[in-house]
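Because discrete structure vocabularies remain unfamiliar, it helps to consider an illustrative case, giving the amino acid sequence and backbone structure tokens:
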Amino acid sequence: MNQSDSIVIIPTYNEKENIEKIIRAVFGLEKCFHILVIDDGSPDGTADIVKGLIQKEFSDRLFIMERSGKLGLGTAYIAGFKWALERDYGYIFEMDADFSHDPNDLPRLYSACADEGYDVAIGSRYISGVNVVNWPIGRVLMSYFASKYVRIVTGFQVHDTTAGFKCYKRRVLKTIELDKIRFKGYGFQIEMKYTAHKIGFKIKEVPVVFVNRREGVSKMSGGIFGEAFFGVMRLRWDGWFRKYPKIVE
């Protein structure tokens, strides 16, 4: 039995080119991680690949949640968080399936929380310059200045507010009122970080290099940037007037 205190949540939609490779890369690390794949009805057979790996090799550390369709990145992670909290995981990770997030950075995020005492570790593209490879310049600028915009509007001093590569201590997700998280795309990533900050959790940015996917099709759209742009104003309003929960140990 491969026991672990850590679960990596990987949402998928049409990731047949990447899913087995990313799973094997995570399981090839020296530290043992478990993986929960949340598949939103991929018509390309992504879920079947995962289920085959569970049956043949990884029944004790690979899990899948199948949903009926594309319900949004934020709702996928919320479902995964709740699943993880029902089990005995102390550290819960977000990671993409397409190798834009390097599995070799997982132990560094884990160490920031488990060894250094932080509550949230963010794999940050912008804490030490702009560490993005093979993104179109327009996408880089949009992402970089989106994070700048969030910092200006909210006063929240995290450089990469839209990052989707993260480690949460269990108590963070127990404390955040997950059913009150409103946003689904980039807004979701900002809202989770900002809420953790407002509650009083310690956050560390760990520098990583983000590499644009080599296989499969990007799921990015202009709509999720729009959600983030207008949602930040609402977050700032909430920051003034909302009563945030007390930390649950």
Observations:
- Helices lie at 19-27, 46-56, 73-85, 106-114, 137-154, 170-175, 186-199, 222-241.
- The longest strand covers residues 6-12.
- The chain has a mean pLDDT of 87.
- Residues 222-241 form the longest helix (20 residues).
